[in-house]
């Protein structure tokens, strides 16, 4: 007698853990030679070819922060929502299932740019312009020109009951 549905650790992962089209085999050496430090942001992406150190399917695609570095694995702190609260889960994941995250790239570039602007303004003895990101301005107004053709005023046709 069956139990109705599968309750295994890797259930519903047929598409989730498969490799991209055209990819196969073991990971390259660059995967193993990447250096991770405490506090780095990493993306958890399960490699289906490596069964050891594979995280639970919930964590696939999540971004976490490194809190522990061992010989073959990383300790990653990931936020998980359970009912109404957010828990900080600490899991160990092998290096094959982790890649450096790009979530901080834009922020770091903006900080670097702001520092350059501040230094430039200080050297010139001027006040600093606004460094905050601003939303896009509305598009400027313009005049529509009708060429050679008269302008027609359109209005709705009154409703008539057909009965």
TrEMBL record:
Q: Which domain of life is it from?
A: Eukaryota
Which Pfam family, any one of them, does this sequence belong to? Ribosomal_L21e
Protein name, as recorded: Large subunit ribosomal protein L21e, cytoplasmic
Instruction: Provide the species name.
Output: Guillardia theta (strain CCMP2712) (Cryptophyte)
- Gene3D superfamilies reported in the protein's UniProt record: 6.10.250.3260, Ribosomal protein L21
- What family does the Swiss-Prot or TrEMBL record give for this protein? Belongs to the eukaryotic ribosomal protein eL21 family.
Q: Does the keyword Chloroplast apply?
A: no
MF terms in GO: structural constituent of ribosome
- InterPro entries, alphabetized: Ribosomal_eL21 (IPR001147), Ribosomal_eL21_CS (IPR018259), Ribosomal_eL21_sf (IPR036948), Translation_prot_SH3-like_sf (IPR008991)
Recorded GO CC terms: ribonucleoprotein complex; ribosome
* A GO biological process held by the record: translation
Keyword line: Ribonucleoprotein, Ribosomal protein
